[in-house]
Automatic annotation (TrEMBL):
Family assignment from sequence similarity: Belongs to the DEAD box helicase family. DDX49/DBP8 subfamily.
Domain of life: Eukaryota
Descriptive protein name: ATP-dependent RNA helicase DBP8
Domain annotation DEAD-box RNA helicase Q: ranges: 7-35
Organism: Naumovozyma castellii
GO biological process: endonucleolytic cleavage in 5'-ETS of tricistronic rRNA transcript (SSU-rRNA, 5.8S rRNA, LSU-rRNA); endonucleolytic cleavage in ITS1 to separate SSU-rRNA from 5.8S rRNA and LSU-rRNA from tricistronic rRNA transcript (SSU-rRNA, 5.8S rRNA, LSU-rRNA); endonucleolytic cleavage to generate mature 5'-end of SSU-rRNA from (SSU-rRNA, 5.8S rRNA, LSU-rRNA)
Length: 437
C-alpha cells in the first residue's frame, strides 16, 4: 500500500520521455486516480475510473496510452470519445503537449469544423483521434476506406465523461463509432467519469473476454459519496424571477466578487445571449459559450476567459463537463439544472485540485424541489448567501440593468438571433412528417 502512496510517474511504469514531458508541464506528483489506473492500463486491463472533476483523469488514461504507443508507434493507435467539442479540444491539447517531443500526430474530429480538412487529417493516419461521437460517426458513414480504415487497428478506445456518452442522446452515434473499431477482445476499453451511473455500473458485470485480464474498476473516495470537494462552499440566493439580471449584476460587482473570475450557468442559449449583451452594456468583461455560436467564436471565448481578458463566462452546459480552467473562483447557477448530477459537473469548474471556490445558486419559487434534489445528491445543505441585499439591488442596480437588458433585446431582434435554430427545428419536424400550415 505504501508503494502506491509514495508512487512516482517512474514507479508507475511510464516511459522516460513521458516523465520528462510531465515534468515540463509542471505535473510532478501523480494523483490518486493516476496512481491506481496507470499501472493497470499498462498491464493491458480494461478500466473504469471514477473521480471528481479536476483530479487528473486525462493524464490517467493519456499517459499509459502514450507509453504503449511509444513502444510501437503504429498508425491509428487510440480513439478518445467525449461529449463536447470544448472538452475534446482540451484533451487534444494535452495529448499534443505530452507527445510533442515524439512527433505525435493528433486529429481533432468535432462538429463546427471543416469536414474536408478533417477527412484529410484522418487519411494521414494520426496516432490518436480525439472526437465527439456525432462527427466521427459522420466520417465513418460517409468517408471512404482510405479515411477511416485505420480505425480497425486501434488498440485503445476511451470514453471520457462516460456517464454522458452512455445515454440515449449518443447511443446511435456511439454504436457507429464502436462498430468501426476492433472487437472488445482486440482492444483496451477505458471509461472515465465523475459520476458513476447505472449504465456505467452495468459494464462492471459484463462477462470477461477470453484471454484478457479482468476489468479494473477504481473510484476515488467513492465518487458517489464525495460528490463535491470539501473546499467548495455551496450557497443560494432567493431571487424574484423578474429581477434576476439585477441580482446577478449586483453579485458580480459586490466587494467579495468584483475581481473574481466567474462562470454563470444557464439552461438556454437565449438566456446566455441576453445576459452576455446585458453585462457587456454594463461594462463587465464578459464572454459566452453556447451551441448557437460558431465553433471559432466558442474557441475564442474560452481563450479569452482562460487568459483573463474576460472575467465572466456565461455558458450553457456545453461548459459544465471536464473543462479545466484553474482560476475559476465562483460558479453561479443562474438557472437551476433539472438533473442534480449536472449541478455537480457545473460546481466542479471551481474548487479544483485542492483550491477553494464558491457555488451560488439563484433560487426562484419554481426551483425549490430541484434544490432539494441537489442537496440530497451532494449530501449537503446549502446556506443562504449574504452577498446581495434586496434594498441594495433596487437602489443600485435595477434601473440601469433594466435599460441594458432592453437595449440587448432590441439588438437581438434586429439581428434575428436564434433564426438558424428555428430553421433547423422546422427542417427536423418536416423530415419527421410534421408540417406547419
Amino acid at each position: 500500500m505504501s508503494e502506491i502512496k509514495n508512487a512516482t510517474f517512474k514507479s508507475l511504469g511510464l516511459s522516460r520521455w513521458l516523465q520528462e514531458a510531465l515534468q515540463a508541464m509542471k505535473i510532478n506528483q501523480p494523483t490518486a486516480i493516476q496512481k491506481a489506473c496507470i499501472p493497470e492500463i499498462l498491464k493491458g486491463r480494461d478500466c473504469i475510473g471514477g473521480a471528481k472533476t479536476g483530479s487528473g483523469k486525462t493524464v490517467a488514461f493519456a499517459a499509459p496510452m502514450l507509453t504503449k504507443w511509444s513502444e510501437d508507434p503504429s498508425g491509428m493507435f487510440g480513439v478518445v470519445l467525449t461529449p463536447t467539442r470544448e472538452l475534446a479540444m482540451q484533451i487534444a491539447e494535452q495529448f499534443t503537449a505530452l507527445g510533442s517531443s515524439m512527433n505525435i500526430r493528433v486529429a481533432l474530429v468535432v462538429g463546427g469544423e471543416s469536414i474536408v480538412d478533417q477527412a484529410i487529417q484522418l487519411q494521414k493516419k494520426p496516432h490518436f483521434i480525439i472526437a465527439t461521437p456525432g462527427r466521427l460517426a459522420h466520417h465513418i458513414m460517409s468517408s471512404g476506406e482510405d479515411t477511416i480504415g485505420g480505425l480497425k487497428r486501434a488498440k485503445f478506445l476511451v470514453l471520457d465523461e462516460a456517464d454522458s456518452l452512455l445515454t440515449d442522446t449518443f447511443a446511435s452515434d456511439l454504436a457507429t463509432c464502436i462498430g468501426a473499431l476492433p472487437s472488445k477482445d482486440k482492444r483496451q476499453t477505458l471509461l472515465f467519469t465523475a459520476t458513476i451511473t447505472d449504465q456505467v455500473r452495468a459494464l462492471e458485470d459484463a462477462p470477461i473476454q477470453e484471454g484478457k485480464p479482468p476489468l479494473f474498476t477504481y473510484q476515488v473516495e467513492s465518487v458517489d459519496k464525495v460528490a463535491i470537494p470539501s473546499t467548495l462552499k455551496t450557497e443560494y440566493i432567493l431571487v424574484p424571477e423578474h429581477v434576476k439580471e439585477a441580482y446577478l449584476y449586483q453579485l458580480l460587482t459586490c466587494e467579495t466578487y468584483k475581481d473574481s473570475s466567474a462562470i454563470i450557468f444557464v439552461n438556454r442559449t437565449m438566456t446566455a445571449e441576453i445576459l452576455r449583451r446585458t453585462l457587456y452594456h454594463l461594462e463587465v468583461r464578459v464572454a459566452s459559450l453556447h451551441s448557437q455560436m460558431p465553433q471559432q467564436e466558442r474557441t475564442n471565448s474560452l481563450h479569452r476567459f482562460r487568459a483573463n481578458v474576460a472575467r465572466v463566462l456565461i455558458a450553457t452546459d456545453v461548459a459544465s463537463r471536464g473543462l479545466d480552467i484553474p482560476t475559476v473562483e465562483l460558479v453561479i447557477n443562474y438557472d437551476i439544472p433539472a438533473d442534480p448530477d449536472t449541478f455537480i459537473h457545473r460546481a466542479g469548474r471551481t474548487a479544483r485540485a485542492g483550491r477553494s471556490g464558491d457555488a451560488i445558486s439563484f433560487v426562484t419559487q419554481r426551483d425549490v424541489s430541484r434544490i432539494e434534489a441537489i442537496e440530497k445528491r451532494i449530501n449537503k445543505k446549502m446556506t443562504e448567501s449574504d452577498k446581495v441585499h434586496d434594498t441594495a439591488v433596487i437602489r443600485k442596480a435595477l434601473t440601469k440593468v433594466t435599460k441594458a437588458k432592453r437595449e440587448s433585446l432590441m439588438a437581438m431582434e434586429k439581428e434575428n438571433f436564434g433564426e438558424r435554430k428555428r430553421v433547423q427545428k422546422r427542417k427536423e419536424l418536416a423530415s419527421k412528417g410534421f408540417r406547419r400550415d
